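BUG: 3D viewer hangs when loading the predicted structure for this chain

Environment: internal workstation, default settings.
Expected: structure renders.
Actual: progress bar stalls at 90%.

Input used:
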Amino acid sequence: MNRTRLLVTGANGFVGLPLCAEVQRQGWQARGAMRSLCQLSAGVESVSVGSIDGEANWCDALRDVDVVIHLAARVHVMKDDAADPLSEFLNVNLHGTENLARQAVQAGVKRLVYVSSIKVNGENTTRAYLESDTPNPQDPYGISKWRAEEALRRIEQESDLEVVIVRPPLVYGAGVKGNFISLMTAIDKGIPLPLAGANNLRSLLYVGNLVDALIACATYSAAAGQTYLLSDAEDVSTAILVEKIAAALGRKSRSFYFPPSVLRAAAAVLGRSAQVDRLFGSLQVNNQKIRNELGWCPPLTVEQGLRATADWYNRRT
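Structure tokens produced before the viewer hung:
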């Protein structure tokens, strides 16, 4: 190719860095957009766009681009100190996304792949979520992602822009933060965890598998106009996840049984119910649609993904 074809927003983030590296490895000409300039993979052009909101100017970033993979977002946090969290999420995740999409139309971009969230579907499951399920976002982050999806579908109907939406569950891998890295640290330090009674089922997604799916969504003609739920090939309970992380770290699990009902009651008193719900509740994703329509399968297993994550964790400590 003799000109830039692919733009990755949020290119210096948790998903953006490995995505840029992989598209470069596969021979794409790629450009990475971020708030302020930083070094990306060799051969990936970088451009600063400042704040990703409804006023951002994407002109330079979108020049000669065929496909945009939109990762940049105000991400979900457990404790949000914003006076009006929904307004803050909408400013970036809705207005910023809509602004990018409308400028992409003007620039002649053919396709926009939007990384949404499984939180659009909801917070827990009694059966695996499907793309056809009625959206049920329950917090400001999930609401902002759903409203962004709606805006993109409207723009798609009004223009020639092809929109592909993916909704990943919890993503792990090198650079992971939040509860996942806290769990890894506790296991690595040999802290006893009362999680042996967590017989739930949760879908996870290794960042390398997400990168592979995003490239498929950017390139396959059948993906145009579709929404896909993504996950690794195996759902695991929190109890089993602890065992798998311990094995990947080369540590002995010190998980023990404690009645989940007692833990939930204690968490309610301490205001930690959300954290305990994530440890003991189920959230499953059915990824059969993308398998059927694009022939996509996660290239790495949960064990392989956890091993790669553990290798990164050990290098950084």
